Backbone:
């Protein structure tokens, strides 16, 4: 039986409730068997920015998913060449997965609209299905135009590429509006973030005095 594995990558600095809601929504939308959260070791777009050490971000993610049986955290991007490119991660997952697996890459509309800037983006599209979330109807017009440009055609509620035999699933979802950068700012100002991050993550941040100026 083919296992359907969702992939949710990011800096997760820190992981927040929006990330977890996105993972859960993707799982329900496509009936995923599991979802792997992949903290980036060195994100290509943040090579020259200061980010929290990998082991802290990995530990926060691990604490955050304890209450979610279908969610798992992987440290593989720490082992792969830097910076952390999506195509390298997908190839690794394909080679090292036990049994047959279909990969579903979970992302937001903004990130997908930049996909042509990704390393070997055509190979990324050949390697996995996509689950793309958007909050606004305006973004859908741009997305649909890009899907057509990438040779996907509308098929019921999804987009299909016959050349790659891959599907893009889309969903307009009322996910929590929260960002890691805003959480870091709030913590630096000693403001409450209880409703924005899991309690286990809040405790970890406090214990290790992260994001304090």
Residues:
């Amino acid at each position: 039986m083919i296992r359907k594995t969702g992939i949710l990558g990011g800096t997760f600095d820190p992981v927040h409730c929006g990330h977890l809601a996105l993972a859960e929504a993707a799982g329900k939308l496509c009936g995923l068997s599991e979802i792997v959260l992949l903290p980036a070791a060195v994100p290509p777009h943040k090579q020259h920015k200061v980010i929290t050490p990998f082991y802290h971000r990995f530990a926060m993610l691990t604490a955050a998913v304890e209450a979610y049986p279908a969610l798992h955290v992987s440290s593989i991007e720490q082992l792969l060449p830097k910076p952390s490119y999506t195509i390298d991660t997908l190839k690794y997952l394909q080679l090292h997965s036990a049994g047959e697996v279909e990969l579903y890459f979970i992302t937001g509309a903004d990130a997908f609209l930049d996909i042509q800037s990704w390393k070997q983006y055509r190979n990324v599209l050949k390697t996995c299905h996509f689950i793309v979330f958007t909050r606004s109807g305006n973004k859908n017009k741009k997305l649909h135009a890009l899907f057509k440009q990438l040779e996907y055609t509308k098929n019921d509620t999804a987009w299909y590429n016959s050349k790659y035999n891959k599907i893009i699933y889309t969903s307009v979802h009322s996910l929590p509006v929260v960002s890691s950068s805003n959480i870091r700012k709030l913590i630096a100002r000693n403001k409450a973030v209880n409703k924005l991050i899991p309690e286990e993550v809040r405790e970890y941040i406090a214990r290790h005095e992260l994001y304090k100026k």
